[in-house]
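Predict the assembly for these two chains.
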Amino acid sequence: MPLKSILIFYLLLIIANSEAQDPLSKSNNNNQIHCNFMATSINEHLVNSLLDLENIYNSLKNNERCPNPPESFIQCFKNQACNINSSLFSMLEPVLKWRKLTTSDTCGHLSKGESDCYQNLTQGIWQNLVLYKDFIVSSAKYIFVSENKTSNILHLLRKMKNPVTFIKSLVTSILQAINEGIKYHFSCERWEFDDFINHGKCLAPATSWACANCNQHLNAFCGVVGYILGQPLSSFITGFLTGAISGTVEASQVASPAIKNFFLSIKKAKEAMISPKNITITSAGNVAGNATPNLWSNYQDAMADAFWGGYSGGKGLALNAAYQTGGQTYKEAFFVFKMEQHRKEVAEVGKKYILDNFTNNSTLDPQRLVDLYDEFINHIHDINKINDPVIRAKLAAMYGKSKNIQTTIDELNTQEMALANNFFKEKNISTAEQAILHSVEKGADQVSRYLATREVTRLSVDLDNGSVPVSVDIKHIRYSNEFGRAMTPPWQPYKGINPSEAFKDMTLEMADTYLKMKFPTVYY
Amino acid sequence: MNVRLISLPSLLFFLSLFIILLARTVVAQTTFEVNGLTVSLKLPQNWKAQSNIMGYPLLLSPTDQSTDSLMLGITSLNATPEADLDSMLIDYKLERLPWLADAKGKLIKFEKPAIFEPGPGVSGTVFGISYKISGQLFSEKSYYLRCKEHSFSLKYLISSEEEKYIPTIEKIIGSFTCL
């Protein structure tokens, strides 16, 4: 299904790059949607796996010249786009009636017998536009999850003066975003930048997709549509409703950070799978080879795991991944990538926090602290342990024997403290500096994982269409000892005597630091 | 003293006018259904209500078409947030900032969360955020209220041009009770 979704994205991307032509209307009447096109069946061309999608891409890439004049994406997709418009339009009827907004729709409801992917997209758009009564009523811990949804609705209702234009523009924009997503996944050679906060624009898009025919376009669309039905679509619709995205912006500007981040994760995992040098030794001591069809067929599971567990799961999930062998290596690659991301966040947020809080300190040198902190993170963070074949073999043996995650985590934590103490000794680090390094790392780690958990929660809400989200205790996450930093640490925290109170204050301050770094665009 | 009295027809005319003007501003306590629960609000005459729009159980809006995009949404919840205000503010920020980033907006400020007790039997907290999107200033306020063992969310979104309606909306929210 995810494979199928990627293909759909491709298709939409091409539409976005075609000339400024409105495929959704044959009429000059702004209040009408007409669908005069013959339905195009794509059922016989459905893509069943990411491997199929990759094959399409590779076949195109090998053609330096297009053998046949390509059909534009916009032409290929006009029937489907019109049907999506029409379907959404009829869903909005109660709003139009209340606001006394009239229009006519000659398109009818979504045609039966078409691929499910269009219906999925239509439903996904709709579900991102409305509240879920069951969710609203049943959500307790994540009460603020509904805040963004209600904001979307209130913004949407402000924009309904011309509903036909609105819907057409929304659908066109989503198609463009999907197209961008496909480009991001497969066919962008070079990106503006590639740090953990922002990836920028695609500076060197591959041109091979311009050679795709209609079947390839449609398949690409259906291949990726499933991927966007969760957080990426939700994120995109927010941008659209609030006016940040319109149907006329260039494709490279359309994709939201969420979409880009999503595809970046997939891309990294894919690269890790394909390249043996990037595959670390497995817990059983084997070295993973090139990706096989089996790996590809399991690829979609890796993405689901990453979203549901991600690095927010910490050691437990990492251990599970590390213990897997053979065909499960893709999971490991994914987790290693996620943990690398996490380490970068902990490092960057911690350094910023130190500079913000110790610059005016007369007894401590903030730049020395920053440099030490950077080294400290590189010494102790879990990514090193997961990548270290000796440690991995030891952990795998322990985990495989006892199946007791906590016991294994305790062992990891013991090693972590030993690494930290050696580091402090080697660098001749004072007790006061040790307290700062430990405390800042703990705070940055907690805040970083807490936000990641929140993102997973939001995604789960989207994916479940309103069911009760995964139960995660916020305080447990915030003060988790999973990474070896217990509520009562064996070292002295630099703030206060009561560790709980000290870290609460620090967490609040660190959260603001983190948020300013994570979402720099929202701050003046 | 020769006092000229107003004629009876004139008196009736002005009286009628007064009553009409009064009627336009009279606020009536009105009951509404919100997810099976009955709530009561003082709704001005020039406001309208609609149930079940896009999943919102109750939406209130001015009747004037030039401002009918201004909305106060009301829904029930199964619980209200129960943490200290600082922690809740972090949660609120963590929820809203990614949204604002998606909206390509700029943060003006988060309102300091506060306890809100409009009247006997109703209490809760209020959160708020102001931001700019495409140069336009918006403010949101969210009230999480408990009333007779039930929880409710009341929320409005308003642009800077509509700020004159804030006192009216706050009055409506302040009149909230449940039956």
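Chain A has a mean pLDDT of 57. The radius of gyration of chain A is 25 Å.
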